[in-house]
Amino acid sequence: MTERLPTDGKKPLGEGAIIVVPSPNDITLAARHRRYLVIRRSAAVIAPGRLCFPGGKCLPGETPNKTAEREFREEIGAEAVIARAIWQNVTPWGVHLVWFLASLRDPKQTFHLQKEEVAEAFWCDLKTLLADPDTLASNTEFLEGALRGTIDLEFPL
Asked: Would you give per-residue pLDDT tens digits along the chain (157 residues)?
């Protein structure tokens, strides 16, 4: 797992998890050509209208792995299976994030979005997401690394 953590010795203000899920129809494509599940944040949350991957803050005593599963279930209304941690970083506002690669438990399951937090969800390739002006700035470094191949998005055999 690659990472970017603070070098100034400061402790992160909190922990969170991000879950990166490729389209089941694209799984045979090279990772940088796949489409991934992206959400547009609702008007009721911080950074309204911005695009990002599902995820959120860890609850007290919750591991980042469990946070990723819970947040996906809450935001998307579907089940995901974590494959592995793929990256970690600390956001400019001081939250330590662990990024996970995952797959849908059932590729045919229907999504039931939590409208209080998620305005829409759709499949999008990394290059398009990086170029979109609505993409959260905190996703840029991950997207650039994934497109360069320095963040490994391949599933274990």
From this structure: 544 444 455 555 689 999 999 999 998 898 889 999 999 999 999 999 999 999 999 999 999 999 999 999 999 999 999 999 999 999 888 889 999 999 999 999 999 999 999 999 999 999 999 999 999 999 999 999 999 999 999 987 5
| Residue 106 maps to a domain | yes
- Beta strand pairing call for 35-41 and 95-104: unpaired
Specify the number of domains making up the chain: 1
With respect to residue 19, please indicate whether it lies within any of the assigned structural domains: yes
State how far the alpha carbon of 147 is from the alpha carbons of 85, 86, 144, 156, in Å. 17, 14, 5, 19
Residue 23's domain comprises: 2-148
Instruction: State the pTM of this model.
Output: 0.90
Give the CATH number, domain containing residue 130.
3.90.79.10
